[in-house]
Amino acid sequence: MSTHSMRRSTLAAAGLAVAGTLVLTGCKDGNEEIPAAPAAPSAAASAPSPAQPTDPAAPSSPAGGYDGSAGASATPAPGGAAGGAVAKSGQAFKIGEAATVPFSYGSNKGGQLALAVTSIAQGDPADLEPLKLGDKVKGMIPYYISYTVKNTGTTDLSFSSVGHIKGLLGDGSEAQGVSIIGKFDKCKDNSLPKGFTNGQTQTNCVIALAPSAQTKVSGAEYWGEPYNNLSSPPQKALTWK
After folding, report:
1. C-alpha distances in Å from residue 193, one per residue of 99, 102, 164, 229
2. Where are the domains of the chain?
3. With contact defined as beta carbons under 8 Å apart, do 74 and 85 qualify?
4. HSE toward the beta carbon, residue 42, CA cutoff 13 A
5. Which candidate, 205, 76, 222, 206, places its Cα nearest to that of 152?
6. What is the mean pLDDT of the chain?
7. Contact (Cβ atoms closer than 8 angstroms) between residue 238 and residue 71
8. Which has the minimum average pLDDT: 27-31, 194-198, 210-214, 221-225?
9. Are strands 108-122 and 201-210 parallel, antiparallel or unpaired?
10. In sequence order, what are the residues at sequence separation of 6 or more whose Cβ sits closer than 8 angstroms to the Cβ of residue 94?
11. CATH architecture label of 9-32+91-240
């Protein structure tokens, strides 16, 4: 992951049924992407709105149960079920191995998750055509990063969105990502369903782009709170390879 302080920018393009937003990634220096507030279940069937550039906002304070010290593990969040020690700043995991992380989303405070990147699969450039990104992704190769989310705490995380997963190239730098608005069957990234309580599990997917066929996406990182530069002291992302 790059350690240079860079601002995050987005370019948007919309199609009739699905839209893609190309995310140009840099270091997480306060321009963190924050998901929109979850919609009511009935809104899921409505037509998607075109993707639009948004002004990044600062994330909420870290969830309880993380002591904020660099490289230090902590006990689970208050009220959380035992899920192992909370992952340390910058901790590396193998593909399929779960990390215990504190988690909050909107009013769902003090949660805890077991988060695991389970696979990184190469796609075909033609897969990106429905996203109407055109020359912005010319020559790039999509990779699909699948990850599981398990609620290991006692907080009901219904309708929360667990994002902040990015691809890593072979040299450790961040791959560009694509945010999806609408339905994209090859890589579904859904909000957590109603009743996502302790023990519930969901598999999500994000797209990472390799700049050419000669470069591969070989790892992934999680940079949600508190694993980013906004923590005090600054923290490092969790990684999977």
Report:
1. 21, 19, 18, 30
2. 9-32+91-240
3. yes
4. 0
5. 76
6. 76
7. no
8. 27-31
9. unpaired
10. 240, 241
11. Sandwich (2.60)
Query: Of 98, 90, 61, 93, which Cα lies nearest the Cα of 73?
Result: 90
> Which residues partner with 20 through β-bridges?
13, 180
d(CA 170, CA 117): 17
Tens digit of pLDDT for each residue in 77-101?
333 334 579 999 999 999 999 999 9
